[in-house]
């Protein structure tokens, strides 16, 4: 009896697996099977008339991420539109379908939205996307990068976790495949960016958030005594990008309210996790423990923390004395869609397409061989960086402006 | 016992059931993977590599579960050991072998704290180890590292992370397989191993038979802590950093593998072969899901189905034993 039940459950499990595999539509084995781990010259498209003559040699160069710039191609991204989308000189439909992996550490709204935006671009750029979430297991991510390479994928778009970024870069380099980072910078000891990356520069974002809170507090609180304004300043210190946002906030706050330095209260999520509960615990303790602060600026490095702070303010009946803003807009825009109008009042706008479009056009051009790590976005590179940190064009949104922003980005994406 | 009887017993055993499941999973993924790459040497190595940390955690937990106790702390202890390794290696001139020894001793200390709570204060092992792991060991990781991931740049750690025998088999795979083999032999063939089973079956009876269950408990908790620390050191070497999330989340999958491998929650039964097969099935299954490009949203469901399968088998097996005992007594 035991064997029969075990066998039945095993069969059911395998049948379910087969069904869900079919639903999710993995890249067709015939396609990926034909793909070599390093794109060879023959994989390159025969190209349209305008394809540079050096495409084949540059393709070879791109097989090594550290490959030097080919003689022929210049930066194909100079023709990028306002959200960073560009075509290189290769017709996507004249070549085989590329097999691209989107890998990230945690199932967060931002990453899931980026996944959906990437899927929208599948037909436009002729690739098949595999989404992979490591569920916070870095070791599993390292192993699966290798497994995907063995399966013949063409390249990665990846959130390189800050706590093991050098090791992740090392493993990516070992695969010999091109990759582009999203969100987290990877810098050497001199502060030079060593991975092509799409993101938001931390200090700038910190300055923007605090400046916005200062410029707009009168609209919400009227003409108040500014000496009573304090700041609950979130960070997640192991992540250098998040922490730079935090430092940028402090710098700007001290500049705008020089006498209020004692009213800055850091809230470091390292004591918990990158989740809402951690944000709530920190905010409720700080709000409740400092009655000397009458008005609170809350600039957050992470949307979930910002949302948690709004819940804490609501619970403590201080919504009319708290102003919250954050980087990224996936959580708040969804809340606004559902009618939210609390003290979480603004966010730095990022449409998922702003991450997906430049990352995919860049990766496809790396796979095509029309650019290398060195030439990609070279015209906009900060001189201190080895490879380009592609800074997204961001602005601060409120409930009155967010829909127009998302409509504009979508219109400019060409979708 | 004749050969026919032995074959008959084997066909009735949990090991045979596990082998059947393993073969079914292997065959399925082999057939459906691109170019049948699931059973390529590289991928099999990859599966074994993914088992390394779980093997270390599972050995310690297995012995305790057979003994009739439970340990949820080794994942956190591993993180603490990894953070300690990174902090000391990067900030002092202490030789690497001493640093590793300190890490193992740290694991033993956490294990002994567990044992004291269980034996002296009569705290249930589930609660005691959860508290020691998720508060003491986790807090220790943050304190010693200052709340930062600390990079490790050391040739021995590089070697540990990347050396492959014949350019194929990672050295950590060899270490872990050797360990489970040694522990398997100790458990099955020695007086010490038999005393673990005896205590797991009935502690009072074991005490009356002249054994010292408390002493054994101290040994097994310390051993589990040490193996957790060893896993943490290997994890830190793989990442080349002392990571604050580290191996925290590894305890439950290790317990899943232990139960899946036929080691009963009730204590007194199970072996290292089952534990190894359980780990192999779970890791091969996860590897196959990745190869098949199954959405990560589904992998959790699939792993849950595996756990349910394990618990169902455990329940059915226990019921059969209870019925047999009931039949004999009546």
Task: Please describe what this structure looks like.
By secondary structure, chain A is an alpha/beta fold. Helix content of chain A is 43%, strand content 14%. Chain A has 14 helices and twelve strands. Chain A has helices at residues 2-24, 29-34, 55-63, 109-120, 122-125, 138-150, 165-175, 202-221, 240-256, 276-289, 303-315, 330-337, 352-368, 402-413; strands spanning 98-104, 127-133, 155-158, 179-182, 197-199, 229-235, 264-268, 295-300, 322-327, 344-348, 389-391, 396-398. In chain A, strands 2-1-3-4-5-11 form a six-stranded parallel sheet, sandwiched between helices. A six-stranded mixed sheet of chain A has the order 7-6-8-9-10-12, sandwiched between helices. Chain A is elongated, with a radius of gyration of 23 Å. In chain A, 51% of the residues are buried. Residues 19-71 of chain A have low confidence and may be disordered. Chain B has 330 residues and is mostly helical. Chain B is 77% helix and 2% strand. Chain B is globular and about 65 Å long. The two termini of chain B are 27 Å apart. Classes of the chains: A alpha/beta (415), B mainly alpha (330). At the A-B interface, helix 1, helix 2, strand 2, helix 6 and helix 7 of A face helix 2, helix 3, helix 11, helix 13 and helix 14 of B.
